[in-house]
């Protein structure tokens, strides 16, 4: 994580999380170890045990990252009314259903109830803030603060302003996420899916295509990725990787030498859809692989591996 986990620049401030699901609960864990007061708002009658279970499962990994996890849950509370949840918020992190109409109606209500200087951020995977803010009076206030799952571990937050967002709001959002240990990056232009998810969607489409064609099973595909691209791209992204792949001639030589066959390969990439046959195949293969292990056990293993990668990379960077 980019800051010392002993730093607590936002300690004591209130973070209101709208939606206590997969992402909201993970955000709650990270906000809590940063000593924020966390209010989770969600109409689900089971939201409290659901969030507390995910927070409890996340804390050991956060301790491995250097956070003090002692008694952090004392700062966690729940509120079923979204407007009531945000009245003292420094930050509102929206983590509700990925539906434009839901987010549009929500931001109208949140804008009326939250403090005028509260940070209003959507976790949305794909919906730009300029689609979400249509019912807001002051449209300069909303930004996307898109995390990668799980937000309590994965460093990236894509901060995506709209053309109406003030530079001050963008700067405040970047400062907040970086101040709680994330790696916040401003995405300069709105586009559906932003950057990371567009890359992920391209790769996942080809992944689904390869499995649907019987080239590999879904766990074999994952094994290929984690033993190649996963390691490579954790250390050097697509462009640096191919710059190095070009040898002393760098990316220029890579493109001259291997550009034409890659362009040809682009013509052969597959298409995929979650049609009934594909869903049945994925479900059947899932049942024979990941489906035999609980969500929490899989998450615990994932967290341990991600912490090892994050700490390992941090150690190399610190020694550089
Ligand atoms: N799951 C993922 O891998 C990621 C999801 N996201 C984004 O985060 C957001 C949430 O996604 P998930 O946590 O995966 O969904 P989820 O389905 O796990 O959680 C959504 C939560 O919203 C609650 N909810 C429904 N109506 C509500 C309302 N009126 N007020 C308050 N809460 C309400 C539900 O009860 C549920 O707990 C989406 O915008 C998604 O695109 C972003 C990054 C990764
Ligand atoms: O993969 C992630 O963690 C995020 O980038 C996502 O937004 C979700 O996977 C999903 O919504 C991709 O569309």
From TrEMBL:
Its EC number is 1.1.1.45. One of its GO terms (biological process) is fatty acid metabolic process. InterPro entries: 3-OHacyl-CoA_DH, 3-OHacyl-CoA_DH_CS, 3-OHacyl-CoA_DH_NAD-bd, 3HC_DH_C, 6-PGluconate_DH-like_C_sf, 6PGD_dom2, NAD(P)-bd_dom_sf. The record marks 146 as: Important for catalytic activity. Keywords: Cytoplasm, NAD, Oxidoreductase, Phosphoprotein. Residues 15-187 form the 3-hydroxyacyl-CoA dehydrogenase NAD binding domain. GO terms for molecular function: L-gulonate 3-dehydrogenase activity; NAD+ binding. It is found in: Cytoplasm. Residues 193-263 form the 3-hydroxyacyl-CoA dehydrogenase C-terminal domain. Signal peptide: none annotated. GO terms for cellular component: cytoplasm. Homodimer. Belongs to the 3-hydroxyacyl-CoA dehydrogenase family. This is L-gulonate 3-dehydrogenase. It comes from Sphingomonas glacialis.
């Amino acid at each position: 994580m980019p800051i010392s986990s002993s730093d607590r620049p936002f300690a004591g401030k209130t973070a209101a999380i709208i939606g206590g699901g997969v992402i909201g609960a993970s955000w709650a864990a990270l906000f809590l170890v940063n000593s924020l007061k966390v209010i989770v708002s969600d109409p689900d009658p089971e939201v409290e045990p659901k969030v507390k279970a995910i927070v409890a499962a996340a804390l050991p990994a956060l301790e491995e990252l250097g956070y003090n996890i002692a008694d952090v849950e004392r700062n966690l509370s729940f509120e079923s009314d979204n407007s009531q949840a945000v009245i003292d918020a420094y930050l509102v992190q929206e983590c509700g259903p990925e539906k434009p109409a839901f987010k549009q109606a929500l931001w109208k209500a949140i804008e009326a109830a939250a403090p005028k200087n509260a940070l209003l951020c959507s976790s949305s995977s794909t919906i730009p803030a300029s689609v979400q803010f249509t019912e807001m009076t002051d449209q300069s206030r909303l930004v996307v603060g898109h995390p990668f799952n799980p937000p309590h571990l994965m460093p990236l937050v894509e901060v995506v302003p709209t053309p109406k967002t003030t530079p001050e709001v963008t700067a405040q959002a970047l400062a907040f996420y970086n101040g709680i240990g994330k790696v916040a990056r401003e995405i300069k232009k709105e586009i559906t899916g932003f950057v990371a998810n567009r890359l992920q969607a391209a790769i996942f489409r080809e992944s689904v295509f390869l499995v649907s064609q019987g080239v590999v099973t879904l766990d074999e595909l994952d094994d290929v990725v984690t033993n190649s691209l996963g390691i490579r791209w954790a250390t050097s992204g697509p462009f640096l990787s191919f710059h190095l792949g070009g040898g002393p001639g760098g990316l220029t030589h890579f493109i001259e030498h291997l550009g034409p066959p890659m362009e040809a390969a682009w013509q052969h990439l597959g298409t995929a859809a979650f049609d009934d046959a594909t869903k049945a195949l994925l479900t059947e293969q899932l049942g024979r692989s990941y489906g035999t292990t609980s969500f929490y056990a899989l998450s615990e293993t994932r967290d341990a591996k991600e912490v090892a990668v994050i700490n390992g990379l941090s150690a190399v960077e610190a020694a550089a």
